[in-house]
Amino acid sequence: MVKIVRLEPISQQTEVETNGSLLSILISKDLDVLKECGGRGLCATCHVYVKEGMNSLSPVNRREQRTLEVITTCKPNSRLACQSRVMANGVVVELPPGMYINSLQDIEALIGRRAEQNLLHPVTGQILVEVGKLITRSMLKQLENTSFKVGEYFSHTKDV
Ligand code: FES
Questions:
Q1: Whole-angstrom Cα distance, residue 129 to residue 135?
Q2: 46 lines ligand 1 (CB under 6 A)
Q3: Res 160: pLDDT
Q4: Exposed, middle or buried by CB within 10 Å (0-12, 13-18, 19+), for 25?
């Protein structure tokens, strides 16, 4: 049996096998999902907003809950796509605006340009550079102590 899921704001409807993950849908649609933690429920890069049909998804597990608590753009309808399995029809999903980056080099490559969209931290979803802002070397300096690795970020957190 397949279930229908709608993706916003691109208004695409797609099918997934019952119990299939939302992440598999995003990937099949070539959406820019970094999957920084490899689908283990530890990062922000598969964070989505469920606009409709939250009850048609598998419930939030403990690990997902802990990660959602860290994500700065988390809302009551937030889910991690890799942890969410589609159990019934009626799910409508929207990706948070912005582009996740996973290293300072990614930002460095954009120095001298204006950010075309918000540049987001891969674990917390925090906006590192706002859309329209000129990306400068001093901006990079300010971010120098930022850890972009999931493992490093959680290394001080027990029981992950
Ligand atoms: S890919 Fe990292 S939490 Fe889903």
A1: 8
A2: yes
A3: 45
A4: buried
Q: Which two tokens stand for residue 115?
A: 């950010």
Per-residue model confidence (pLDDT) at position 32: 73
Domain ranges in the chain?
2-94, 99-150
Q: Which protein residue's CA is at the shortest distance from atom 3 of ligand 1? A: 41
Determine the distance separating the centroid of ligand 1 and the alpha carbon of 122, expressed in angstroms: 9
Reference 80, options 126, 51, 42, 52; nearest CA is: 42
Contact (Cβ atoms closer than 8 angstroms) between residue 92 and residue 53: yes
Q: How far is the CA of 44 from the centre of ligand 1 (A)?
A: 6
E strands, 9-154, where? 12-17, 47-52, 78-80, 91-94, 99-100, 119-120, 127-129
- For 27-76, what is each residue's pLDDT tens digit? 888 787 899 999 999 999 999 999 999 999 999 999 999 999 999 999 99
Q: Give the CATH class of 2-94.
A: alpha beta
Dihedral angle sign, alpha carbons of residues 17, 19, 24, 26: positive
